[in-house]
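[Automated response] Your request has been received and processed.

Submitted sequence:
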Amino acid sequence: MRVLVCDDEQLARDRLKRLVEKADNVEVVAEAANGREAIEQTQEHRPDVVLMDIRMPEMDGMEAAEHLSKIDNPPAIIFCTAYDEHALQAFKVHAVDYLLKPVSLSDLEMALSKARTLNRVQLAELGKEVSEEKPRRRGHISARTHRGLELVPVDEVRYFLADQKYVTVCFSEGEVLIDETLKDLETEFGEQFVRIHRNALVALRYIEGMELATAGHHQVRLRGIEERLTVSRRHVAGLRKVLQSL
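Generated structure:
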């Protein structure tokens, strides 16, 4: 069994690695200091299990688990944390197990045994439920591209544009497609984005203004992109009110 150890504290990672080495037929193939690194290392080393801390800088374990569920052949997640109030939420993202620090060898071996019994089909099903529940607001949007799982910081997103089944995410470095609904994105990120059309959400932080285009149609200008996005007539008044309050 291939294991990735993820914790923001080096001493905690070292202790977990020593415990893993004492277990039978288990090896540590990589380590990470936060959720984002865990995703990168998972795609490179393809572990069977990720031992994941919850409270970490840049991206915490809960969000990382949600993103990891979207990759092909996702690993089993076992949370290792000192904060037992996270237990309920951990199981909402369908972790295989939840271990309180300091982790004992016996508890670790039981959790690894449980992970070993799960096949890839079952893990994929857990991942599907993770993506449907969306327990809280993410800091990143994840998209499956030819490069693997690509992470886009929400703070860098200019707009979400719906087109039939997919949504285009325009951000500082380009565009990606995601298989999510505009309605769900609006519910999750409504404080950061405003709807300007039935098929478009734009980031409040990048709006420079609204202007009148030809034939009485309005458009919105966004900092950092030349493209103008159409504002539907039903959303003009609402957008104007939002802009006045900024």
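Summary generated for your ticket: The CA atoms of residues 144 and 150 lie 6 Å apart. Residues 120-133 form the longest helix (14 residues).
If you did not submit this request, please reply to this message.
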